[in-house]
Design brief:
By secondary structure, the chain is mostly helical. It has 13 helices and no strands. About 15% of the residues are buried.
């Protein structure tokens, strides 16, 4: 079969084109891509309600309200505790900084003398604000428009998601009917593999975030770390950001431990061991079992995809790197199977 008549080749080309177009027009397409992802995740729930005799539009509204309600309810449930601990943590930052500085002075006196001679200037918030005042004023308009964009996204994304949920099955049916009969079975088979990959990835990542949030918050609270609940839940929830999440959570926890357990260095070691244990559990058990089996990517390929995603699209690229690399691998794997099954490859004569 000629490569130009190979349906998998065109799927591969369409996938690459979608990524390029999304990157070029990211400012315009962001709400639509977010809505597409949400519709993909929520469509099975809408289908379930529809089988119970509820019309599709009503099912879409119910599921959207339920999803938004879960998010808002969770926030309202834990936000008072988070606010209280966040305020205490922010107010403690100057003391944490001073104690860390004293520790560094004891351990590395020469380094401190050479690099921290401007301590008073750094801690003088008034002088910093004066120097940065003009920059703040000039940047106020930018941040105001960014906030406006965020508010618009919050309202626009649910609307787009609703329309996609209502017409989701119609879109799938029309897409399937537009395929020639001789290639529809092959394309549908690849689409099912991609769907299984994405479903397994999302499910596995969600389970990992929940388990790590519980593990970190319980372990840190058991050790008696101040703000342990806030830091533990935060570290667990951002663990979906590869490498960055665990490093950031550990840095915050160890900083607080340096302040709280100043005279008992063993507790600081315990706090660090909590995050080391969490990372060992994630990398050696949870990720291989829940995500590795779904995306079928080698660890080196995962690291490479995260590096490329971060370079091209920042945090968004890091978040989407693994599922996109998984889709890329599925299509590339199918192309390689067809190549190996090619008559020319089997019998060049």
């Amino acid at each position: 079969m000629s490569v130009y008549r190979n349906p998998i080749f065109w799927m591969f080309l369409a996938f690459l084109s979608f990524i390029v177009i999304t990157l070029i027009f990211s400012s315009v397409l962001t709400p639509y891509v977010c809505a597409l992802v949400l519709a993909y995740l929520l469509a099975p729930l809408v289908d379930r309600l529809e089988t119970l005799g509820i019309s599709r539009p009503i099912s879409g509204i119910i599921i959207l309200i339920f999803a938004i309600g879960c998010i808002v309810g969770s926030i309202l449930l834990v936000i008072p505790i988070f606010i209280q601990q966040a305020e205490m943590l922010i107010s403690a930052f100057p003391r944490i900084y001073n104690r860390c500085l004293v520790l560094l002075e004891r351990l590395l006196p020469t380094f401190i003398e050479n690099n921290f001679s401007l301590e008073t200037e750094v801690l003088n918030a008034g002088e910093v604000l004066k120097r940065q005042g003009l920059n703040f004023v000039s940047g106020f308009t930018f941040y105001a428009f960014a906030l406006l964009d965020l508010i618009l996204l919050i309202f626009v994304i649910p609307i787009i998601t609703f329309y996609l949920l209502v017409d989701w099955n119609k879109i799938l049916i029309k897409s399937a009917r537009s395929l020639p009969d001789q290639v529809s079975t092959e394309i549908n088979g690849v689409a099912v593999k991609i769907d299984n990959l994405l479903t397994g990835f999302v499910r596995g990542q969600l389970i990992i975030c929940i388990v790590l949030s519980i593990f970190y918050s319980v372990a840190l609270s058991f050790l008696g770390l101040s703000y342990g609940l806030l830091i533990g839940v935060f570290a667990g929830l951002i663990s979906f950001i590869p490498f960055v999440g665990a490093a950031l959570g550990a840095a915050i926890a160890v900083s607080v431990a340096l302040y709280q357990f100043w005279d008992t260095s063993l507790f600081i070691v315990y706090v660090a061991l909590v995050f080391i244990a969490g990372q060992l559990l994630e990398s050696n058990f949870f990720t291989p079992k829940l995500i590795g089996s779904a995306v079928r990517l080698h660890p080196i390929a995962i690291m490479l995809s995260i590096s490329i995603g971060g370079t091209v699209a920042g945090i968004t690229g890091i978040l989407l790197a693994i599922p996109l690399a998984g889709i890329f691998a599925v299509l590339l794997r199918e192309l390689s199977y067809q190549y190996l099954d090619n008559t020319f490859f089997k019998d060049p004569e």
